[in-house]
Design a protein that fits this description.
The complex is a heterotrimer of chains A (290), B (409) and C (314). With 290 residues, chain A is mainly α. Classes of the chains: A mainly alpha (290), B alpha/beta (409), C mainly alpha (314).
């Protein structure tokens, strides 16, 4: 029983972390109709900046949590203004290709700046070690922290989307861009803002993930596939969908990793294929038919 | 190192003219002798390749300062295998045909070795393997051009089994990377242990996480929940670093388990972990810098620490020794012809930091011993764990016979 | 007049390709073989992308399964190469049919993500199924036996193998070209330009897309099959999305609007990779920058931009 409990908790922290990362992807798609292939690379940048701030500059985790996502958001603004705006009006395929090119560029730049080796980031003093839960199973404190952060973000995002003007504007632009423009909403600003916000979320995920995972140039690639699966299972453009998809994937990893480790790599894809067979739009997605 | 130094040639030519015919050969050919190397230079095991390059660079600069080989300087051309056989095969072709290297060395991955070794005879250049440990390359895949200077899995596991048999752990499992190295380590360990202690139980419930996996938590939990008394851990590189950190968080090292890390004493890993590598666990390495008290080793360790700041890893030592092996082979043969060098290397003995090493005639495997030790207190200067109860084995005893390897040369 | 010049240029290129082993340094025979195989792979991808307008990021799955099929047949059954290649085409087609069925129902964005994810799924299977695929170590140690059809060739000789590949690629490209020029191919292009209209004409665009995807899978499998003896190993990386990216890049580089674009792109890509990687490790960075620039400013590709301009001249 204790094994199951730990596995479930594991699912929760994996799932919530995935949600933080994938929701940015979802939001960007909703408003821009573009899947940002470089989303995982932005997550990785967040982790590397956290590593630099904490390990190389000796700053605290809190500083990293605040500064790194902001820095990545700024980079995202630059990407949007200097590169992406050329092809927003074009075929979706071109945007996909361009974000893919960005992925290659960011990946390699990270490798050139920080080297190919793996780095480790220690959690802050307060969050180290483990606590006993469900009897004598030890569970890392930091993972509990991740769960808390995830839940806070879920609540915060829900509030933003449903209760604030900015949220309403984003949803409006997602539903009908031309109409939003006609209503004098500055969609260029919204577009850049949303892209930056998505990047901010991805980088935040990266900072939070850094003490738990290896910080290496391959981490962006791993997470982008996971994010795609989350988005496909949950449904593109849907906020509750992203949460549902992330939870499902979290369960698959947590339980699958514990009880079916041999085929653990495969389960997310199988899950995705099953969802597609019966619900091609994802569990909660909006129209996706060709 | 990687540059041709014309000034060097000038002085040697001048010296040769003065000393006239006799001891020193003068070559009209000024081209350096090229060593081609293929190691992992990127990804989670990048430090292994980098440390190997350090060993090579050190050897080359020492040899070049001393007049080079056959009057020519040595030069390194190194390629990144990325841990992939296909990449390594194409790199080997490039080194052989485009860069026209004289000899080859390398390989940080058993999987890469299994793919590359069968294609080596076509290139007609000798290959000295300094790291990859799959027994196959000096076993069923052996060929006239492939040699290995480092311990292989069979040797290491025979030694491991001896140590395992001393403990009272009777139920063993493993956590190893899911490729040739992980699986073969477990296979050979199990067979060797059963030979010594027939009533030992080798559990069916084993863990083989993907090489490069980030999350070992489920595997760690799985072992802790099981009834294992001893665990053979063949993870290496970044995996081992991650594993130790995650295992510490989960209290893995507080349980009363007999733990044996088959390549745990790699300085690449020990420097990354520092004091997070726990005390009192068995760690092994192909070469431990503190285990050998001969002149060559003392000189090597000192020169390495002077140049790079930390003690040499086994990959660095293997690569360093391989360069010297090639030097001896070339001087014995008198030229750098591939097939001729391969013939000379067969059965050749030479002095390396870990003693006098011989490439066994029957399978081209160097008769060298792995080093096992219990992790002890932190070294005052080097900031890595020391090894206590250091074991150096008789190479002949821990090696398989040629017949057992399945190599027919 | 212009088409005559183009045909002449093509004929000249083929003659040069045939003469290659006697003209270039030994190492370039390997480069040439790789360019031809990857060119076919890219051309098969372009059937789906340039002609039908679907951006697939998982094409390496079909390529890779072709590599494994040939490798496994050579290792275990020592079949003649032609037979292995036919099987590779078959498995490539079947896999494309399965993945395509699940994917072509959905729009471009979903399609891109799905093909990427399914490609990685195939990669994961190859990685994990140790008992069949030998896991991450891949399948190695197979030798090349006969070619088939009673033709006696020493396939182990790189120059001989190069010519074999050249012959197969020319034949396959011809077939692919005929498909593209047929009414089927024209329908595909119509679907790319305006799918809705085509469906209003009463055609089932889903079937057409699936058919294109399947055919593409077959030719990608063929290319993959030829890769196995060339590389001497079949490994999971051949199914990874990084490999899937290569035909995408090659097609964009060369030009997605012309049949030979992907081949030109393949030559450029492989040559650039060979030269740049010997100078710097940052090949992927360079690739990303080139791709970005091409997409932003030279969307028609090198061959595409040139032909657009030249064919337009009076």
């Amino acid at each position: 029983m204790s094994g199951l409990g730990a596995a479930l908790l594991n699912s929760l922290d994996i799932g919530l972390l995935l949600f933080v990362i994938a929701v940015g992807l979802n939001i960007v798609f909703g408003v821009l109709n573009v899947i940002n292939f470089a989303h995982g690379a932005l997550y990785m940048l967040g982790a590397y900046l956290a590593f630099t701030l904490m390990n190389l500059l000796g700053l605290s985790f809190i500083v990293a949590l605040i500064v790194a996502p902001l820095a990545v958001a700024v980079i995202a603004v630059l990407i949007d203004r200097l590169v992406l705006r050329f092809i927003y009006e074009r075929d979706v395929a071109d945007s996909l290709l361009l974000t893919f090119a960005l992925l290659l560029i960011i990946n390699e730049s990270v490798r050139m700046i920080w080297g190919s080796g793996i780095h480790t980031v220690q959690p802050p003093e307060l969050l180290r070690g483990s606590v006993g839960i469900f009897g004598d199973t030890l569970y890392p404190v930091y993972s509990l922290f991740v769960i808390v952060v995830g839940l806070v973000l879920v609540a915060a995002l829900w509030f933003i989307f449903n209760r604030t003007r900015a949220g309403k504007i984003m949803r409006a632009a997602a539903l009908d861009r031309d109409m939003a423009e006609a209503l004098c909403i500055n969609t260029k600003l919204v577009v850049t803002g949303v892209f930056a916000f998505g990047a901010w979320l991805a980088a935040l995920g990266g900072v939070v993930a850094a003490p738990m995972r290896a910080v290496d140039p391959g981490m962006g690639d791993k997470i982008i596939i996971e994010s795609f699966i989350v988005v496909v299972i949950g449904g593109l453009g849907s906020f509750p969908g992203a949460l549902a998809g992330a939870m499902v994937l979290g369960l698959i990893h947590g339980l699958g990793g514990r009880y079916l480790p041999e085929i653990n790599l495969l389960l997310p894809f199988v899950g995705m294929a099953l969802v597609l067979l019966f619900k091609p739009n994802g569990l909660m997605g909006k129209g996706a038919n060709a | 190192m990687t540059k041709f130094k014309p000034g060097k040639l000038f002085t040697s030519l001048a010296a040769a003219t003065l000393l006239s015919a006799g001891a020193i050969q003068v070559h009209a050919d000024e081209h350096p002798i090229k060593l081609g190397a293929i190691y992992i230079l990127s990804g989670s095991a990048a430090t292994y390749g980098q440390f190997a390059q350090r060993g090579i660079d050190l050897a080359i600069s020492e040899i070049n300062e001393d007049g080079g080989v056959l009057g020519r300087d040595l030069e390194l051309v190194i390629e990144d295998s990325q841990g992939k056989a296909a990449v390594a095969i194409q790199a080997a072709r490039k080194l052989a045909y485009e860069d026209q290297v004289d000899v080859l060395m390398g390989l940080d991955s058993s999987g890469v070795a299994q793919g590359l070794v069968p294609t080596i005879p076509e290139l007609q250049k000798p290959l000295i393997i300094t790291h990859a440990a799959t027994p196959d390359v000096t076993g069923k895949l052996c060929n006239a051009f492939t040699f290995r200077i480092s311990t292989n899995v069979a040797q290491n596991m025979n030694a491991a089994a001896e140590i395992a048999a001393e403990s009272d752990a009777n139920r063993w499992t493993t956590i190893g990377p899911d490729y040739a190295f992980g699986h073969q380590s477990w296979e050979f360990f199990g067979n060797a242990l059963k030979d010594i202690k027939p009533d030992v139980e080798l559990m069916d419930d084993t863990a083989f996480p993907r090489f490069g996996a980030e999350d070992f938590t489920p595997f760690i939990n799985g072992v802790m929940d099981s009834e294992a008394e001893g665990v053979l851990i063949s993870l290496w590189g970044g995996d081992l670093v991650n594993f130790v950190r995650q295992a510490t968080n989960l209290g893995f090292f507080e349980k009363d388990l007999e733990l044996m890390f088959t390549v745990g004493a790699a300085t690449e890993v020990l420097t990354a972990l520092e004091d997070r590598m726990p005390e009192g666990v068995w760690l092994a390495t192909r070469y431990w810098y503190d285990a050998y008290d001969n002149e060559i080793n003392q000189k090597f360790v000192k020169a390495y620490i002077d140049a790079y700041g930390n003690p040499p890893s086994y990959n660095a030592e293997g690569a360093y020794a391989a360069v010297y092996a090639y030097k001896k082979a070339m001087e014995t043969t008198g030229n750098t012809d591939g097939p001729a060098l391969a013939k000379t290397l067969k059965g050749m003995s030479f002095d390396a930091p870990n003693g006098n090493v011989t490439f066994r005639t029957g399978d081209h495997q160097a008769m060298v011993s792995p080093n096992w030790g219990l992790s002890g207190p932190m070294h005052p200067e080097h900031n890595i764990r020391t090894l206590e109860d250091l074991r150096v084995f008789d190479a002949e005893k821990v090696s398989r016979t040629v017949a057992e390897t399945g190599c027919t040369l | 007049m212009k088409s005559a010049i183009l045909l002449g240029a093509l004929a000249l290129t083929i003659i040069l390709l045939i003469a290659l082993p006697w003209v270039v340094p030994y190492f370039y025979i390997f480069i040439g073989t790789e360019i031809l195989i990857m060119g076919l792979f890219a051309a098969s991808f372009n059937l789906v992308f340039g002609y039908t307008g679907m951006l697939s990021f998982g094409h390496a799955a079909f390529f890779g399964i072709g590599t494994y099929a040939t490798a496994m047949l050579l290792l275990h059954l020592q079949w003649p190469l032609l037979a292995c290649l036919l099987v590779s085409m078959g498995v490539g087609a079947v896999l494309a049919l399965v993945i395509g069925f699940l994917s072509v129902r959905l729009n471009e964005v979903y399609f891109a993500m799905l093909t990427l994810a399914f490609g990685m799924m195939v990669f994961s299977i190859a990685h994990m199924w140790r008992s069949v695929t030998n896991g991450s170590d891949g399948i190695a140690g197979f030798t090349l036996g006969a070619f088939g059809l009673g033709i006696d060739l020493t396939l182990g000789n790189p120059a001989v193998y190069y010519h074999v590949v050249l012959a197969i690629v020319i034949v396959a490209s011809l077939v692919l070209y005929l498909i593209c020029r047929s009414s089927f191919g024209l329908t595909l292009q119509a679907i790319r330009q305006n799918a809705e209209r085509v469906s209003f004409c009463g055609l089932n665009i889903r079937s057409y897309r699936l058919a294109a995807f399947t055919i593409s899978g077959a030719f990608a499998g063929l290319a993959g099959g030829m890769m196995a003896p060339f590389l001497r190993v079949a490994s999971p990386e051949m199914m990874h999305w990084a490999t899937s990216a290569e035909p995408v890049l090659m097609s964009i580089l060369g030009g997605t609007g012309y049949f030979l674009g992907p081949f030109v792109g393949s030559a450029l890509f492989v040559l650039l990779e060979t030269w740049i990687t010997s100078v710097t490790q940052a090949w992927m960075l360079f690739l990303g920058i080139v791709l970005a620039l091409m997409v932003m400013f030279f969307r028609r590709g090198i061959l595409g931009t040139f032909l657009d301009w030249w064919l337009d001249k009076k």
